[in-house]
Each structure stands twice: as C-alpha cells, then as structure tokens.
Write a structure and sequence with these properties.
Helix content: 25-40%
Oligomer: single chain
Number of strands: 11
Number of helices: 3
Shape: elongated
CATH class of the largest domain: Mainly Beta
Largest sheet: 5 strands, antiparallel
CATH topology of the largest domain: Jelly Rolls
Distance between the termini: 53 Å
Order of helices and strands: EEHEEEEHEEEEEH
Number of domains: 2
Structural class: alpha+beta
CATH architecture of the largest domain: Sandwich
Length: 173
C-alpha cells in the first residue's frame, strides 16, 4: 500500500491472489465431487458366450466371467437358449455363482451355489438390485442339462460393475 498526494493507493495483487486461491479451492472441491461420482456410478456392460453340447447325458457349462479384485458385479438380466431367440433348444438351464470352473460345476451341480434355474429354453430372466452379486473369485456359470448333442447354446448377461468400496457404501446408505 502506498500513500500519494491524491489519496490512498492499494496494491491489487493481494486481491487477485485471494480470488485465485478461492478459485483453486472450488476446483479441488469439484474434482473431488467428480471422483466420488465416478466411484459410485456403476458401469453397465454385457457379456456373452456359447458352447456346443457334446452329448445330452453330460451337463455342459457356459462361462460368463466374474469380477476382478476390487470390483463387484451385479446381475441385472440373463438370456439363455439356442443361438437365436427362435431356435428350439431342448433341455434346462441352471445358473451358478461359483469359484469353480465350468467343467467342475457342471459335474458337481452344487445346490448351495445355484442362483436361478430355467425349466424350458429360451429364457429371459430379470433381477432386482442386489439380488445376484458376484465378488472375486466368483464367476457366473450357466449349466445346460439334457441339451441336444451337436447344438450350440448361448447365454448373455447384462451386468453393472461397481468398485467394491462404492458398493459397500451404497448398500449401507
């Protein structure tokens, strides 16, 4: 600050510095808000796979993957049947949330790991929020039972992926 004959003169750099500091704080808050929004917003995606039934006497699995460490997958819907929706597909389907591989779960068919089943194909199943959740190392396996030998069967799932910490906070809210 300087005093002159005309009156008092103030250095404007101090005011500009305060304004820039306040703007920087607002930008930090906005960036933190964006980060929290990204962490709490699920990423939707589809995952599909198919298999050919080797013999009707052997249950056959179709693997639909599972989350990597640090993420949770929430199943929203699943479609199971022949390669097209109008394809006649004999047999039934069982849906498992399991850490076992496809051949293992098809052989064991563990009742404690089954999450859904279909007595006729094709089938479209929809699920409520939080109804079917997969955590690492779980995978979703669809087991076709009494399918037609030599026929291709397909399954496609629609998922929401959450960071594990964000899903835990969402459930507690």
């Amino acid at each position: 600050m300087t005093v002159t004959d005309e009156g008092l003169e103030v250095d404007a750099s101090f005011k500009l510095s305060l304004q820039l500091g306040a703007l920087t704080d607002e930008m930090r808050e906005f960036n933190a808000w964006q980060r929290r929004a990204r962490e709490n917003t699920p990423t939707p995606f589809r995952q599909g796979n198919s298999t050919t039934i080797p013999t009707p006497t052997a249950p056959t699995a179709i693997g639909l993957g599972g989350p990597t460490p640090g993420f949770i997958w929430e199943l929203r819907s699943i479609t199971i049947g022949g390669l097209t929706f109008t394809t006649t597909a004999a047999g039934t389907a069982e849906v498992y949330s399991t850490a076992l591989g496809g051949a293992q779960i098809a052989a064991v068919r563990d009742l404690t790991q089954i999450v859904d089943q279909a007595t006729a194909l094709p089938i479209v199943g929809g699920y409520s929020t939080g109804q079917i959740i997969l955590q690492h190392p779980e995978k979703l396996q669809v087991v076709i039972v009494s399918g037609t030998a030599g026929q291709q069967y397909a399954a496609v799932a629609f998922w929401r992926q959450y960071p594990t910490i964000a899903y835990a906070a969402r459930v507690q809210a």
